[in-house]
Amino acid sequence: MAMYTQVYAQFREAQERTAERRAAALYSNLIADLSQLNFADADDRRAFPPTLHSILARHGLFGLTTPGEHGGLALPLEEAINLISATASFDVSAASTLVIHNFLALPCIQAAPHIPEQNHIIWGATRGDLCAFALTEPGAGSAPRHIEASALMREDKVRISGRKIWIGLADWARWIVCFARASGPDAKGRLVGVLVDRQAPGLKVTHEHRTLGLRGIIQNTLEFHDVEVPRSYVLSRDQDGWGAASSSMNRGRIGVAAMGLGALERAIQVAASYASHRRLGKLRMIENSYIEQLFGQMVLRREVVKAMLAASCQLVSAQGAPNVHLASATKVLSSEWCGLVADQCVQLLGGRGYDEGAPLAKIYRDARILRIFEGPTEALLSHLGRCLLSKATRDEIADLFRSVGAASVHGAAIEQLSGLNETDGAVLIYAGWLTTLGLAKAVMSAGCFSASDCAAAAADLVSSELATLRTRAPARQSVEVRNWASRTLTTFLEDAACSIRSPVLTDDYLRLVQYV
Q1: What predicted TM-score, i.e. pTM, was given to this entire model?
Q2: Looking at the domain assignment, is residue 460 inside a domain?
């Protein structure tokens, strides 16, 4: 038995070394191929370079974590997000394609073995048959309780009607994972996920959204006009589609955090290159003490995000998915700090940073969506704050802090919140930040998630951010104070109605109404 154990351990070690070499070779080859593409031109034309899809498919990146028997690479989550982050350092749009396909849509299909020809569908998806994820609606956003698209459940058919907006990959996809409200005699009224063929009669891809960033990836409105699919294509047999959607979105948050890391790293790299050559008086910019400290803080933020991603990959649930609270905190920190660093780097370059010919302008625009994708920062912070304070979930948060050896950090956060109104929106946001920065401090202090020499300095940065946050703790607001804020806004709107009468404003308002 001992000999068997020793041989098995050696076999496993050899397998791991082989997997590491394979991942390193894949990473190197991908970087070499992406370096040959002109993503700036793609941004101007609002279309990917024609060869990008074939490059991603050739390297197997449409099956990052998919098992080998289904044609995938079967990579560990940490290696998959490294590839996404590397791709994002070239183009966030390209990386978002990988996140939508690999982390949002494809897992929903993999979790439904009952659908006809599942193996064939997944095999095609790993070879480049793109899969889209259709959840967002005009009046609901991604909030499940407000979704109005309907799925009429019949004995052998499902009829889908409704409209979805901002659906990435919609017009390029082979398959669309659509979420709708179940209706019919045997329906429970809950959310269902349905796999829809892009060529299904009644499905129309209409308006193409002209977004601020992510110009390389197409995003469309989808119109479902009595689209009929076989009942067997309902992905969530028990009609608990929100469970599948939330699980995918949790993985998606890790993907968005990886995108933020890649964009953040590229922004620092570009700005540091410029500062190394640009002179301020007798010194180069990078030798200026203020700018040295600014770059130092940027690098420390990068180290924190890397460690948070590493922790999210290592602390997975029994279902193999990242911890939902840690994933949310990681996504918040990565997206917020990516935006901050991109802004600082644009500022360092001055007018050149604002020039569309320089890469930072594109990074700055692309980074902005990361604070919205897979849950806006405010929504995720409110959720984390509510989980920290709620009796139903506070034990989950406490267990998470204990798992990274930071029970005292959790206790300090609870003490900080004592006496505050737990239903106040400002308190929830504050509690969410306490949770996010508290987890970041715990991860950096644990020492096992970062091998960097500057891990201690990064932990100090987070501690400083926490101390600053605590000086802005929300106070109890009287009814008079809240009424004053409401009156101030009302007065402004009345004044603006008289002073701003531009037809452009009217046109912009009318365009906005279609999303409300």
Answers
A1: 0.92
A2: yes
